Amino acid sequence: MNDQDDNKQIIDRIQAIRDDLGKKLLILTHHYQRKEIVALGDYQGDSFGLSQKAAEDKDAQYIVFCGVHFMAESAEILSQAHQTVQIPKTEAGCWMADMADNHVVTEAWDELTSITGPGSIMPIVYMNSDAELKAFCGLQGGTVCTSSNAPDALRWAFTQREKVLFFPDQHLGRNTGNQMGIRPDEMILWNPKKPLGGNTPDDVKKAKVILWDGYCLVHTRFQVEHVRKMREKFPQSKLVVHPECTQEVVAMADAVGSTSYIVKYVKEAPPDTTIIIGTEINLINRLALEHPDKKIFELHYSLCPNMFKINLNNLLWTLENVGKVNVIKVREDIKVDARAALDRMLDLAPQNKSLKGKDPSDKGQIPVAM
Ligand code: SF4
């Protein structure tokens, strides 16, 4: 038997379980999952859309989350008491989420507030973080954000307090700050390994945004050189990138937005457009298959090995043991505070717009370079 026959048998078994469980089962799949996994999902989306779905669906008894660990954790926090959340592979973590933990963030918070005084800094934690950090934010009156709604989160924060601590992704924070017109000298980097994050007390007092020194290895792989090379090769092309890319790459792009924004951008682009995309390769490959009328290329090959850990075999195994294996459980006290921060995020309307350029839905045009 070859691999294809093997896969077909597994897919048939997964389908049979789906048919059997009907509405009792909800399979959520992130855009970066393998295409055969996405094809089996009830809903595909980015971390914002998937957490909304997890919060809304009251029928499903079993939520199987095909994404990385922090996403399944958020789904568990937002789910109801009668629901169980499972992840097909518990080792599917996130490098960026591992760059900040509750201990170091609390230390930084104490140092910062000892300079700025209480009630002056709003913590905003990116979705890509563990539940304890979301709980920290909830406790301090802050919110969670995703790449879909980071500008809304920052705008909201500045209506409440004068400064923002943004963690763990420095690039999403900086790109959003740039888009909002916050000056580079008003955004400082906080390196948790250095005293005062590598800053002086004066730097902290002057800063509007304090950016945690974290990053996504998948998106920081894209370099200015890659943009130059692709622009030379395809001079008529449009470049759309994810806001976890560096500000140098973002500055060269025609449009910037979350994975859902990128999906929408490609869908709404006129036929025959050449689009170069700076994000995870599984999404790009799928978009190329779904839109044969457009020419779609990756800015550079970049795969998220964590997302790739979920495959047909471990999905089938999870479904054969539905409600029993790889169940995600968040401690009740953490859950309450993390839920407060996630609820604040869900109250912020997701804009799903480009951080720069025009939205492709505007008169059906593609965003143009600024
Ligand atoms: S793409 Fe980056 S941020 Fe997203 S899960 Fe993978 S390592 Fe984490």
Q: Can you walk me through this structure?
A:
The protein has 15 helices and 13 strands. The protein has 370 residues and is of the alpha/beta class. It folds into three domains: 3-93 and 307-330, Rossmann fold, CATH 3.40.50.10800; 97-212, 3-Layer(aba) Sandwich (Rossmann fold), CATH 3.40.50; 224-303 and 351-364, NadA-like (Rossmann fold, 3-Layer(aba) Sandwich). Helix 2 (35-38) links the parallel strand 1 and strand 2 (43-45). Mean pLDDT is 93; it is low at 358-370. The structure holds iron/sulfur cluster.
CATH architecture label of the largest domain: 3-Layer(aba) Sandwich
Rounded to an integer in angstroms, the radius of gyration calculated over CA atoms is 21 Å
Beta strands, count: 13
Residue stretches low in confidence (pLDDT < 50, at least 5 long) are: 358-370
**CATH-assigned fold name of the largest domain:** Rossmann fold
Q: What is the molecular shape?
A: globular
The number of distinct structural domains comes to 3
Distance between termini?
54 Å
Order of helices and strands: HEHEHEHEHEHEHEHEHEHEHEHEHEHH
Calculate the mean pLDDT score and round it. 93
Count of helices? Answer: 15
SS content category: alpha/beta
* Sheet of most strands: 5 strands, parallel
Instruction: Give the DSSP E fraction (strand runs of 2 or more residues).
Output: 5-15%
Give the ligands present.
iron/sulfur cluster
The level 1 CATH classification of the largest domain is: Alpha Beta
For the largest beta sheet, what order do the strands appear in spatially? 6-5-7-9-8
The helical percent reads 40-55%
